[in-house]
Amino acid sequence: MDNTNWNFNPVNQPGLAQKPLTRSFISGVFSWMGIALANPLLLLMYSGTTWII
Amino acid sequence: MKYLIRSDQGGLSGLGYVVMFAPLGFVLLMGFGFNKLSSTALTGIFLLYSMIMGISLSFIFLAYTQSSIFQVFFISAAMFGVMALTGYTTKTDLTKLGSLMFMALIGIIIAALVNFFLKSDTLSYVISFISVIVFTGLTAYDVQKLKNIGAGVEGGSESAAKLSIMGALTLYLDFINLFLALLRIFGNRRS
Questions:
Q1: Among A11, A17, A21, whose Cβ lies nearest the Cβ of B31?
Q2: In the predicted structure, residue B166 carries a pLDDT above the cut 90
Q3: Chain B residues closer than 8 Å to A41 by CB
Q4: Three-class DSSP category at A47
Q5: Cβ burial, residue B128 (10 Å; 0-12/13-18/19+)
Q6: Which residues of A have a CB under 8 Å from any CB of B?
Q7: Which residue in A7, A24, A36 is closest to B20 by CB distance?
Q8: Helix (H, G, I), strand (E, B) or coil at B32
Q9: Is the Cα torsion angle B32, A41, A36, B113 positive or negative in sign?
């Protein structure tokens, strides 16, 4: 059964507009971790001609 | 790339550190400044964020071969497209799936932090595999949510403009995370 509320209006829902922010923030942190922690931080181990990634 | 890495001693240059930490700063700024900033300012920050993210992503060319990056990019784009279409057209309410995926996302962030110290290849592979499931699910959920929000807000209003930017950011991050997870699984690392 389709329970989707097609008349949903976030403007009339106090606090609901903040929810996408939490998600964006968490996803943003994860993508940052994926790039900055998983790859470039290991670039700090860069030595001469060898990349340890 | 030569501006991001110090060629003499190795490691990152000053600009390299800026590029490395700026994406986190922009995400914080957009999150905390959502209610205070105008939609124009948010658009500007989003554009800057995506630019810095692009530069930051250039590091993957050092870790993976060019051909594998292209292949994974097309796989990610196809998966993202299919899931976005599914989210847009399905009549099933994906709210429960979204909550479940969000909890799983928190879980993999904690696991990724733990693995940063453990350095386990197996755990890294498991995290990447779960990330693919999580972000494909979140893509469908986000598209359905945005469709519902779009049907509810008044077009052209300030709140509609702000919500559309946050929607774009959410979907953009879904794609980036899906791409990075697939790259960790299928990408050919440079030896």
A1: A21
A2: no
A3: 20
A4: strand
A5: buried
A6: 2-11, 17-18, 20-41, 43-44, 46-48, 51, 53
A7: A36
A8: helix
A9: negative
- Is this complex scored with an ipTM above 0.90? no
Radius of gyration for chain B, computed over Cα atoms and rounded to the nearest angstrom: 18
Q: What CA–CA distance (Å, rounded) separates B164 from B178?
A: 21
Residue with tokens 């784009």: B77
What are φ and ψ of residue B31, in 5° steps? -65, -50
pLDDT in tens, B21-40: 888 888 888 877 877 888 89
Interface test with A, best of B56, B89, B190 (most A CBs within 10 A): B56
Contact A3, B97 (CB under 8 A): no
What are the structure tokens assigned to B60, written together? 């993957």
| Res B53 pLDDT > 90 | no
Mean pLDDT within B113-141: 89
User: Scanning the structure block, which residue is given the tokens 């979204």?
Assistant: B98
Token pair for B139: 């893509």
